[in-house]
Amino acid sequence: MVPGKEEAWLFIADAGESHRGLQALRRLLSGLAHELRTPLVTMLTHLEVIRLPAIAPEIRTQSLQILEEETRRMLRMAHDVLDLGRLASEPLALRPLDLTAVVRAAIAEKLPEAQARGQALSLEIEAELPMALGDADRLKQVFLNLLDNAIRYSRAGDRITVTLRRVPEGIRCVVADTGPGIPEAHLPHVIEPFYRGEAGESGGSGLGLTIVAEILRQHQARLEIESRTEGETGTQVRFTLPAWVGSE
């Protein structure tokens, strides 16, 4: 710095990275606008029905029920959008944890729903597991979301199995079902925000797997999805979590 001269600071931004970030934001906002349009149109339609002077009580009740369902759907969507934003701005604090306890808690929460649909839900632990390194609440969220998808898209009589086993890299986690499977063309897109493929309206927010993939990324884990739609149909979702080195 030269005496008597004004000091100036130069900041050089990565325009390419900024452009990619803006593109991702545009895709997210575009998808969100599209997803909000459907429930809003449905809600307006049923509000008009309720205002009809000679409406039958059973039709009014049905319209009120649909309004409640669509409102809850929009709340889930808003919650997941905010959750995705928190994940992007607040890195997870990873600590030693008992992964078996986390998975058992998730299964216990989803078991009544699976049983009500006539599906078998079980846990298999292939070996004594080390402590995992992770965020217990977020990992429970991962398993709840994967189980929710497996239950929602499987049929009565299908089996859903969560398997945990020790591998050199850590703990291998697999959520497998014997459901109808995901068509090959859709597999590369299932973690994209609001992507639904041929499933249409599923009752979810459309962000579940996007959030799962981000949580696992922050655990240094990669989400793998394999599916079969012919023969022995079904879907396997796999990832490997790091073990806590202090557990050795």
From TrEMBL:
Origin organism lineage: Bacteria, Bacillati, Chloroflexota, Thermoflexia, Thermoflexales
Enzyme Commission number, as recorded: 2.7.13.3
Record's protein name: histidine kinase
Keyword terms of this UniProt record: Kinase, Phosphoprotein, Transferase, Two-component regulatory system
InterPro entries to which the protein is assigned, alphabetical: HATPase_C_sf, HATPase_dom, His_kinase_dom, HisK_dim/P_dom, HisK_dim/P_sf, Sig_transdc_His_kin-like_C
GO MF terms, alphabetically ordered: phosphorelay sensor kinase activity
Domain called Histidine kinase: residue spans: 31-245
Chain's gene name: phoR_5
Domain of life: Bacteria
